[in-house]
Amino acid sequence: MRIRLNKTPGRLANLILLAAFVTALVASGFFAVRLTVNTIYWSSHRDEPIEPWMTVGYVAHSYNLEPKALFGALDLPIGVSDRRTLGDIASAKGVSFEVLKSTVEASIRRSRQQPNGDLSDRMSGS
Fold first, then answer.
1. How far apart are CA 19 and CA 54, in angstroms?
2. Per-residue pLDDT tens over the stretch 53-73
3. Which top-level group of life is the source organism from (predicted)?
4. Structural contact between residues 35 and 68, judged by C-beta atoms closer than 8 angstroms
5. CA distance 19 to 125
């Protein structure tokens, strides 16, 4: 008695491979579109005027800074995800948005003057 092995893939195997290929194609397309949209968006949103609706992370990304520099300047805990808007942070601190905005702008200027882009000398009290 001889057992015959089917050396050609069956219909089910072909469907599984097709489904895997289509899934990979859709995922690649999704990430390509996402990359393109983000690249176009951020290339035209550099150094945006600071507004109350912005988060610290948005400002840091717009000004090409490390978020920890701005968190430190605003006396917010570094390393903790804080997605509050600048307007909400100003309200929580009991200051006007304009005061907070001037603090953020000053820290941006200081960060840009430093080669590494953070406020390590401000944090250490120098």
1. 42
2. 999 999 998 898 888 888 988
3. Bacteria
4. no
5. 59
